[in-house]
Amino acid sequence: MGVMLLLPIFVALPALAGGGAPAAGGPPPDVVAAQEAEGAEGEEAKVEIGRDVYYKTEGPVVGAPAPKTQDTAEFYPRYNFESRVLLWVANQQHLYYGSFVLAVPIFCMCIEFAGLLSKDKAMAKKYDQLAYDFIKISLTAYSLTAILGGILIFTFLTLYPAFFGYLSSIFRPVMHIYALMFVAESGTLYIYYYGWDKMKEGLLKWLHASMSVVLNVIGTVLMFLANSWIGFMMSPAGVDEQGRYLGNIWHVIHTALWNPLNVHRILGNMAFGGGVVAAYAAYRFLSAKNDEERAHYDWMGYIAMALGVAFLIPLPFAGYWLMREVYAYRQQMGITLMGGLLAWLFIIQATMIGILFLTTNYYLWQALGRMTGGERFQRYIKYFVFILVVGLLVFITPHTIVMTPAELKAMGGQQHPVLGNYGVMSAKNGGINAIIMTTIASFIWYQRGNRVPAVKWAKFGNIFLITFFVVAHLNNIWVACYGYFIPANVRIGLSVPQVAGTLSCLFFGSALNLAMLKQSRELGPIRWGQIAPRSQYALIMLATAFTWMMGLMGYIRSSVRLFWHVNEIMRDNSPWAYTHTIGFGANVISFNVLFFWITIMFVFWLGALGAKKAPVPATQPVPGAAPQPATGH
Question: DSSP 3-state assignment of 51?
């Protein structure tokens, strides 16, 4: 394990040496020799100036051009199996675990601070125990992440030496920073975990909680640095048209897609991490031996689900921003994604998003059963189901689809004679925004499950809240329909009022509801643990859908580069430089999901060994200090 943790340092040693031998996989010896020979000609030699392919600024050429690979074993070693699939599996498994160990410490930080700020000592202890349970799960996962990271590096070096060497040479100025941050994160995590009992009171407890902030800052910086590699491959910057480094590492990192990638991935990681922890809680709930255990893991599952969905709700907006930046960077890439070769994958993605929101709503409706008074909302569920289903059908309806010549001939063109008229972007945005607003309303229902507002203005507040949601839905529907009557280049701007309405429901509607619940009459306690077992299978379904969709989006991001290692800079000349069929891609994604869940079940099993907990009594309500959206309890 120690070797795995120090592996990034070994890769980065040439950067630390500042002029020593090239990094592993760096420029070939003949290139290095040529560079040294050129340098020996004298200091008066003219410095060559290159032009940045993205920023259009000029800078001194300080790197070798991107290798011009050939379909030979020298550039692409053969091992009787498709190298790309091996790298795909190694990369995806590392990404799954990396996302998990990034998200869980953030959850721990939120929950630990909630316990510190709680005035109820009993609940503060339960929050602290919950945070400990979370970090205990992630510790084993962190070790697996390090192992998978080592496997990934060896896979790159073995199967794609020229490609990995080129990327290493470009990012060499920050490789040592990445390595040192990785070691710092490892040390902070172990101190944070093993110091839990020693630092449980007074100033030491605040110091311990502060360590969680440091841990998460380091983890986020690591993720941003890793994202810079992806951003560079999709939208290179900081190099000239030959791929030569121009000396500005910030340009290399800060590519056209780096910011939206960072936002999209951190939201996705948080939603994914919440789903995995919720699945762990569901597993422990279903295997619990007594009511106290069921109550504890029911509460744990709800908190994890609530945190995950809190990041799921803005995720479609972040995805829209990413796609918009892709179109702005290269319109052809956007067309390939949304209306060309990869369009069917986005229909699958839309279906998975719909499954996520449907499952979330189903869990919340089931959770009303543990609350006295929750039954009063049951009669309205059928209307919510109708809105969710209609919104999903609109969301997944394609405008144009990729077809075979025979299919094109049978249908009379690339657009379906009926459905093709409906799949415009404003309508799709209307569908997903309707789904999100309905999910927000379900959360508000849940917050009111066992409570009735008792403020003097409760009647006015209820009328205003209902009117606010109705107006937001009507605005969303009107804008979606209006998009059919305006040009496509104008239609894209309609997303702004749609998103504004949805976010207003999220922030203003939730805030108004919580203000009304500050003075409320409780109809009865929350009966933690008294929930139908099928609700726990919904949590497992939620986590599985998150996992599958993460694999799908990774495949889409990689496939949009087509036959380029680095878009328009370094061509992929391997025998596998083609786009797989949707069926093959789905099979590999499913294999990755299955393999991840088999290994994470092992992590769950380890977490269950000798687990200590402070169970939540079956009738103990979660107080107002619970993380959003549980704040109403």
Answer: strand
Query: Counting runs of H as helices and runs of E as strands, what totals does the chain give?
Result: 22, 6
CA distance 73 to 2: 32
**E strand or H helix that includes residue 301:** helix 291-312
Question: What CA–CA distance (Å, rounded) separates 369 from 381?
Answer: 13
* Sole residue written with tokens 């094109």: 408
pLDDT digits (tens, 9 = 90+) for 575-586: 988 888 889 999
What are the phi and psi torsion angles at 60 (to 5°)?
-70, 140
Contact 516, 238 (CB under 8 A): no
Q: Which of 632, 622, 625, 626 is nearest to 511 (CA)?
A: 632
> In this predicted model, what pLDDT tens digit does every residue of 384-421 receive, in sequence order?
999 999 999 988 887 776 677 787 778 777 677 776 66
Q: Record the tokens describing residue 67, joined without a space.
A: 């290798």
Question: How many whole angstroms separate alpha carbon 312 and alpha carbon 282?
Answer: 19
Q: Using an 8 Å Cβ cutoff, are 64 and 30 in contact?
A: no
Name, in order, each residue with C-beta under 8 angstroms of 614's C-beta and a sequence gap of 6 or more.
125, 126, 129, 296
Which region, left, alpha or beta, applies to residue 614 given φ > 0 means left and ψ of -120 to 50 means alpha? beta
Reference 464, options 500, 507, 509, 501; nearest CA is 509
Sequence-distant (≥ 6) Cβ neighbours of residue 115 within 8 angstroms? 123, 124, 125, 126, 127, 128, 131
For the chain, which residues score pLDDT lower than 70?
1-45, 401-402, 414, 419-421, 488-489, 607-608, 610-633
